[in-house]
């Protein structure tokens, strides 16, 4: 080997040694781009924390972008701006503490400029000054920015608590895997403890494995991060000061439903299923990982715009939000909709606020009165731990 090329090889080795952060086995850069100062999420003085989920905005170019699947009488004057108006109406009606956008925030194919499209799509949340978070769907990267580029843009926007990826995970697949803690009421005994945990994951876009067709899935690297994070949070919550007896409830947000969403029919879900469950064609085991961790009470996805149900499997509620955006496919005459989740704290004997007592949900339709439907309790502390009664199928005995 000529001396010159040995130098090149040596230099390359040196570079590799000093740049491990930018290169990973998963081919993923994890160096976080500019982040905002962390804002603290906490329960309000009313003992509640309310989350608005916006699924599948499919935003493109604003006023120029027409609505899909609306009634013939609604076509005229309908555009992406109706999606923005719906967010503003929801904010006005529900006054959420936090907004989660669960992917397909923009419809990349039709957006001339992905960054501008995102700026417009998230503008109503930013204008309202409400902290918000977003994860990626399978359409966000189809425009002028890659998935990495889209997530980098999101984390630089105002009032967002979205993160590029966890700084402690050296290798992780995808962009926009992170968690947020929601502390107890200011001045209460649990003011400095996370009483509700929120997890956000990148469920990918499409399979890159030729032998496996279809959508992406949550990879082992992401599940390992989830396991570590959940374990750390459980330990902190159950340790002094104010050691609690059981873990704080966790809620998980991502875009593509898990194969387990297909476990239900109308007899055991609340809401509707009007199309198939478009999960990955393989099961990467994230549902089992969550069951094992034990703290997750509900999972919220989008992706299938005509499904809006919640069903419970092995102690975890699996919920769709239903399609929100007007440039997304839908069903004419079937209103666009959003899901609201509210966690409520229990009152302590001394009249203060304690741990989370219940988690409830409902949806609102983008009709004249923002009709609320399908109210249900997703989880309650009192019934947790006690085994659910077995339903006797077939009646009689
Ligand atoms: C879209 O917004 C326009 C302007 O506010 C409104 O007139 C129209 O009814 C909306 N369309 C739908 C389908 O909500
Ligand atoms: C929480 O932290 C704040 C600021 O550090 C402190 O003033 C307060 O006493 C703490 N509250 C509890 C219950 O630990
Ligand atoms: C829902 O009910 C159907 C039968 O109607 C049953 O096959 C299915 O296992 C049930 N799912 C769950 C999660 O209980």
Automatic annotation (TrEMBL):
CDD domains named in the record: MPP_Dcr2
Key words of the record: Glycoprotein, Iron, Metal-binding, Secreted, Signal, Zinc
UniProt family annotation: Belongs to the metallophosphoesterase superfamily. Purple acid phosphatase family.
The protein's required cofactors: Zn(2+)
Secreted among keywords: yes
Subunit structure: Homodimer.
An example Gene Ontology CC term for this record: cytoplasm
Pfam families for the chain: Metallophos (PF00149)
Biological source species: Corchorus olitorius
Gene3D superfamilies: 3.60.21.10
Lineage: Eukaryota, Viridiplantae, Streptophyta, Embryophyta, Tracheophyta
InterPro entries for the chain: Calcineurin-like_PHP, Metallo-depent_PP-like, PAP14/16/28/29
GO molecular function: hydrolase activity, acting on ester bonds; metal ion binding
Keyword Membrane carried by entry: no
Signal peptide: 1-25
Domain Calcineurin-like phosphoesterase: 49-305
Protein location: Secreted
Protein name as catalogued: Calcineurin-like phosphoesterase domain-containing protein
